[in-house]
Design brief:
heterodimer, A: 21 helices, globular, disordered N terminus, B: mainly alpha, two-stranded antiparallel sheet, 14 helices, disordered C terminus
Chain lengths: 585, 293
Amino acid sequence: MTHDSIEEPHHETIGEPLLTVSNLTIRHRGAGRGDGADAGSGAGATNSATTILHDVSLDLHRGEVLGLIGESGAGKSTLGNAVLGLLTSDFERTAGTIVFDGRPLEGMGPREWAKLRGRRIAAIFQDHTASLDPLMAIGRQVEEAVLANNEEPLRREARAVALDLLARVGISDAAGRYDHYPHQFSGGQRQRIVIAIALAGAPDMIVADEPTSALDATVQKQILTLLRDLVDDTGVAVVLVTHDMGVVAEVTDRVVVLRHGRIVEKGITGKLLDAPERSYTRSLLAAVPRLKLAGPDRGTDREGSDEETLDDDGASPSPAPQAPPILCASNVTKVFTGGSFGWFAGRNRKPALDGVSIDLAPGAITGIVGESGSGKSTIGRIIAGLETADAGALAIEAKPFDIRRPGRRSGLIGKVQMIFQDPAVSLNPCLTVGETLKEAVRFGNRPMDDITSAIGGMLDRLRLPHTLLPRYPHQLSGGQKQRICIARALLAGPRLLVADEPTSALDVSVQAEIVALLKETIAEQGISMLFISHDLALVQALCSSIYIFKDGRVEDAGPSGFIFGHSPNPYTRSLIDARPRRFVH
Amino acid sequence: MNVQTLRALCKASWHYRVSPSVLLLAAYVLLALAAPLIAPQNPYDPLQIQAWEASSPPGTMSGAGYLYLLGTDGLGRDIVSTVLYGLRLSLLVALVSTAAAAFIGLTLGVSAAYFGTWVDALIMRIVDLQLSLPTILVALIAIVTLGPGVDRIILAIVIVQWAGYARLARGVALSEIGKPYMDAARLLRLPTGRIVLRHLLPNSIAPAVTLIPIELGHAIALEATLSFLGLGVPIDKPSLGSTVANGFQYLLTGQYWISLFPGLALFGLIAAINFVGEDIRRRLNPRSLSHDA
């Protein structure tokens, strides 16, 4: 299950390794900087613009999970694709070999690859939606994989085998859902079906490229557990490509840390995580936000009375009860009306927000935690005036706003600034950084006489070089872009800031930096912030009080200490339990 | 998408493989620009036209001392000169009308996407209505209502072509509006005009850039068609299309050159523009890049 016994790894090196990669060096041939489409991936590389992998050696045994971890541009996916024989002709192997089960993989033709892939080497990718054919029933898709990857076509039995596979990956009522289409399943179930297809050929090895990155924390945990169980049951070997230390800690036996295409460190997972030798590994580990559980469930007696008052109603008292809240939202309800086709409209209409009430304490950071579809982003957009609500009241600094009207009409828009999840699309690609920031100052809430010095001061505060001003967004790294977004939001001079998953699209090491910077600047400028995230540890590190959202409702709320210490709410507990043990204290 | 397209555009101009169609197009443009210098005769000037030399076959010597290389038409105009001047007119009409149609179409399409509700409904229903009618019919109706003249032809082509740009730009703009940088612009309470012109429009026109060269070819063909039907340019200022039409009645009497040579010139021009346009479109579209590489 949670794989605590990994400290004694069961790879007593059972004979030959299944996969051996030795001294692999791969170059990308794109003339100079690659052509447009690859420009994004090339941006991360610094000195080695063309060499993607440098002298990489590793081996993998049967029944073992090998983690390949690294930040963007580390070459981990290139390595995964090389093993799968999926590298395009732009990539060129200049040195080294890949040997699978005693057989070198280089120079194999497409026919030989077709025999190997699917049957002996299978793949699982991050995007479960794109991995399945949307126009084909899932049972048929599994069946197809079964038929394609077995020597003698067993048409009669294919269905039975497919059902068996679906049951094995945990699709309940597989026979009943055999004829359902991919969109009728949740993301976690879809990824399970993808795994079933990968297993159809009874492969010796599965290459899983970020298999859980697109999933919610609790689902991620289930999928990882499933993978681990499959490895233990069938003896299949798994190469797990990931950027997430939590995933590595959860399921892998051994781990290889990659950076800029070179192996930084490799070893048995437990040992490597306990005592990393290289400073890069240490910094990666240190960057993972850790959840601190103050005195577990036992400390309830002292705060028992507190708990009762909190449990009645979702709304929580702010940590500083004497100060009136800067923002007070009550009974906010929002129903999305999409796809209204005659009498289909109105059916199945689940409210995105259902009577949500939240208060934000002034000068503090309040957190909203929830999984996808919980309505956490919707409430943020309503507060910012970007979205209307169907019912409810909102007051900022005791001034009421009509949130049923568009933000421009009710005057709400502009009171609150936002920081968005993906910095790549949060800046106008046609404007330089300087133009973007200038606009924020000119049209912001506090007009400044000296625009240039205001921008300069903000850049200094966010530790950005002034040389970025004449550049366009695509010339910046992800972290730089996000800091420019923060600068834009702050230069407009808001009293309240809404940050919607501001670090989810960034590398771990950059994440920590952005969070620290955000916390520091907020405190310095006396701004309040609503921090929306799916990551409990991050919210704990930042926020003084926390709301937990589920299905458009406030499921649990309270001061940070209460939520993580001894909230009796089962959903809160399940969220906490979904965290990898190693990163919980 | 947008930045990549722009970058691809920059790159395309740097190492552009010189193809025959590019050379041909360049030759056309040069000839059109230099027409007054190189044409032996100004076909718009009645004083230079000798009516008694009408319908001379190719190779006849003119009274003014130059060779009618491709013959003369029914009014005694030198075909070489008529083609060169007609080329000027055809290119001018096509360029002006395509530019105007692109500007109007893009602005209206982006506005429809941004303002939504009844603005969107109004603009897009007009677009739908117009795209549901055959192009030539719309152009004919426009010309019949507006009357003849070069400026009217340009107007007619704009009326025909703006709808395509509007529909394309609206689609792109709708997906751009959903992006966070547009939210950020709204949160800064920027004036509406600034949001549309500075944030939305520049990011929505990249796909339309690929439409322009294709539509340019259509515009030339449409102008020629209208002129051929006698609804285009005035008779004393022939474009390529009307020159072909002029010679049409002489075809049966064996005076092929009046129609043939302007027709060939027109064919070459449209073909060159379409080849170059297709090439540009392919280069700008990263998805089709791998196919011809």
